[in-house]
Amino acid sequence: MASTSRVLSGAQPTADSYHLGNYFGAFKQWVALQDEFEAFYFIPDLHSITVEYDPAQLRERTYIAAAQLLAAGVDPERSALFVQSHVPEHAQLAWVLGGITGFGEAGRMTQFKDKSARSGSDSASVGLFTYPILMAADILIYQADKVPVGEDQRQHVELARNLAQRFNHRFGETFTVPEAHIVKATAKIYDLQDPVSKMSGSNQSHAGVVDLTDTPQQAAKKLRSAVTDSGSEIFYDRETKPGIANLLTIFSALTDRSIDDVVAEFEGQQYGHLKVALGDLVGDFVAAFGDRTRELLGDRAELDRILAAGAVRAREVAVPTLQLVYERSGFVAP
Ligand code: TRP
Fold this sequence. Notes:
Blueprint: E1 6-10, H1 20-33, E2 38-43, H2 55-72, E3 80-83, H3 89-98, H4 103-107, H5 110-119, H6 126-140, E4 146-149, H7 154-171, E5 179-182, H8 216-224, H9 242-255, H10 259-265, H11 271-297, H12 300-329
Parallel strand pairs: 1-2, 2-3, 4-5
This protein binds tryptophan (TRP).
């Protein structure tokens, strides 16, 4: 198998922009992992059609996602950055894996249960049901060792492990059994209006979500209006002071300083001081991030070129894996 360990992850282009939680909870780790691993990062557009969506919007969101991943520091010289639908082997492997996945096994996926309950199970699509099998294919087609994801995706990575082991057992050693690489809690960012729920593009109100496309004024205002806790002293305690803990986490993440160091800086000051200072910091951050993203989005031909090169690199691994899988499955060679 691969000499350098492989890391793989994807983030759905479900909104018009990724947000600060995606950046600190995922992309910063992806960028750091590029130093140590052979990295594959992709935009799972095939996953995005499992719920109602608008085609023109999906296309635009896919470009925005690519530009934002590049702006975040994904380096196309070192990592394969690509769009899932450009590599047909994902869908082809998903079909094979579907044959060894139990109906009940797929039905136990909690994300499917949550999402289908929300839309009413009659309107939930078959694609939403088989979504985790496609995700397993995304991972296994690259023989990935590590999959950086949030806690909510752990069960899906577990399914990928089970399917890899099952296939290997029935048809002979074929797949690397991947491991979830769960992001550390310190980088986890919560909603500014509801600091016990994680920051998420699907949260009802956007007042607590800092989009990476926000203007500095919008971002600073969201920080200044963040919900804080009773009391007035600034210290870190997720249980009794989730609002302040969240602000301290964001401050620490943005400045690469320890929480203790940030707490010490604000000793004796009011919540308002922290919110204003952080509002300025986040404002500066989104200003710079937005400039880089707009520059990348301004040259679609260059973005297309980067994504095409990423897909070529991805297929160098995906094609031989699928070939081996087809051989092991008993398909006659074409
Ligand atoms: N399901 C993931 C999410 O919603 C996105 C995803 C699709 C993914 N395929 C993947 C993540 C493979 C890691 C590996 O966040």
